[in-house]
Write a structure and sequence with these properties.
globular, seven-stranded mixed β-sheet, alpha/beta, 278 residues
Length: 278
Amino acid sequence: MVALPSSPNEPTRRSDREKLFRDAPLLWRALMRVDRAIIGLTGRLEVTGDVPDSVRGKPLLLAANHIGNLDALVLIAACRTRRLAPRFLATGGLFDTPVLGTLLRACRHVRADRGKSTAGEALGRVVTALTSDHRPVLMYPEGRITLEPDMWPERGKTGVARMALASGATVVPVSQWGAHEAMCYGMVRVEKAGDLRILFSSWLRAVRRRPKLRVHFGAPVDLSDLSPDRVGDATRARDRIMRTIATGMVPLREGELGAPHHFDPTRPATDKPSPWRP
């Protein structure tokens, strides 16, 4: 039997994965290690699925559902188990804070200004980021923590779809469940010390309970028949991405496909059910 030669642009061995991972800024890799320790203290991380070797080192978007204040840390820890060092598409306000903003820029995360005239610039920034750096970009298509009554993904926006179609990036859906138990919703904006105490005390309760923090990397979403220039294709791409994320949540939510078992009295909810609920 003769082995077929592999393209140098397609990492297929563990050493290739490790090289791609270690190309991330040293600071970011160090922070990911700290994050893994925090998540290890918080609960029991369970990661299933993977990102295919064939799409690593190429433009790649990770699209995840948003369920709580701590789920970004859970996603970082899950990515680390798969030797991924993603860049987050983060709101511009975080980049403007003195310390956190410096860290975000040093780790080469991507800025998005929501609700401003410059919001459209995020599309160009992500396309540039995807084509100039092989590390994936992780995004929340919903744009906020879900307020769907049973915590299924909200309808979502077309931003991720437009970025994928404009850059030719592969979209890998990331489904998660359990992080909402690790910290309460609390409030939309932390404005005083008492707000922080509410969030921190809920985290301490989670440390005692050690909830399961489940993350699943799904198969890439097929968008090959869609075009960035055709009217309606961004919406069609959004629908495929969101539906795949929701489908991936089903095994993670076994036994609580209806109302979540964990009740958070601080979490508001809309009266709009998710269009993607399986």
